[in-house]
């Protein structure tokens, strides 16, 4: 038991750090992963920056990648570390590491309604399965099932399922992407990197070679302000694909407790998201369309919901 706990939600682009104590979570800071050799170096920089009077002896990290042993490899970045070595280097008595979307899922049962915007669907069924999906640098997927007296969260690697095109235009775009990827997963077309992939493929397919290479934030901005038709098509496709993937998750889980959309991208799009093809694709399921129309879908209006899940876990160490 310690007086405070270091928490970190680490994605492919940003590492979000904070301190949890009896008063709550404070000293939140975002660091760019590219500026550090790994999570230990980023954590030490953060602790030095906040000049904490009491150095944490416990830490809980959420990482964008599978967690199943001592060696942690990040899916969307070159970072890698061993839990045992990191624990020793940071002088910790306790060090817990979980998948980042497990942290997202842990925040759902007690989430404030003020952080949710209902996209569509009916009312959630009490104690029914819940799905969580969201595009950031990659595409995260997790779920919750009722465990008798509470919900239990489980991470998945559902972002890497094979993703199907359904129109001739999509087939052409996916075919163009095959020059770069042997396997087109949901993440390849439904994430920050996926948005860049779509933009690049459309640019080549439509012979728009004069257009510059752009990163996801610029593509989103140009799509929303209407200054680039290629950017707009890429973003519209990505949001439709997100709806398709979320609808697939709803069917797979029988997620009558709801599907929750997390991740840094949708929260920044505002009305553009609600006017997209997300809900149309979410409910376009043939004979099961009415089934999905009854399953509520919520956009989480918080770009780092995993920190709330980490706070819950960190409290066990106080």
Structural description of this entry:
The longest helix is centred in the last third of the chain and has 25 residues, at about 230-255. Strands 8-13-12-9-10-11 form a 6-stranded mixed beta sheet, sandwiched between helices. The mean pLDDT is about 95. Helix 4 (about 170-175) crosses helix 6. With about 325 residues, it is α/β, with parallel strands linked by helices. The protein has a domain at about 5-105 and about 305-315: Nucleotidyltransferase, domain 5, CATH 3.30.420. It contains 13 helices and 13 strands. The termini are close together. The protein is globular and about 60 Å long. Strand 1 (about 5-10) and strand 2 form a beta hairpin. It has helices spanning about 40-50, 85-90, 100-105, 170-175, 185-190, 190-205, 215-225, 230-255, 265, 270-275, 280-285, 290-295, 305-315, and strands spanning about 5-10, 15-20, 25-30, 60-65, 70-75, 80, 95-100, 115-120, 130-135, 140-145, 150-155, 260, 295-300.
How would you sum up the major sheet? 6 strands, mixed
Q: Report the mean per-residue pLDDT as an integer.
A: 94
Q: What is the H-and-E element order?
A: EEEHEEEHEHEEEEHHHHHEHHHHEH
Class per helix and strand makeup:
alpha/beta
Q: Give the strand order, joined by hyphens, for the main sheet.
A: 8-13-12-9-10-11
Number of helices: 13
| Strands, total number | 13
Amino- and carboxy-terminal Cα gap: 5 Å
Which percent range describes the beta-strand content?
Answer: 15-25%
Query: What is the CATH C level class of the domain at 5-104 and 305-317, in words?
Result: Alpha Beta
CATH superfamily of the domain at 5-104 and 305-317: ATPase, nucleotide binding domain
Q: Which runs of at least 5 residues are low in confidence (pLDDT < 50)?
A: none
- Rg, alpha carbons: 20 Å
CATH topology of the domain at 5-104 and 305-317: Nucleotidyltransferase, domain 5
CATH architecture call of the domain at 5-104 and 305-317: 2-Layer Sandwich
| Shape type | globular
Oligomeric organization of the protein chains: single chain
- Helical residues, percent: 25-40%
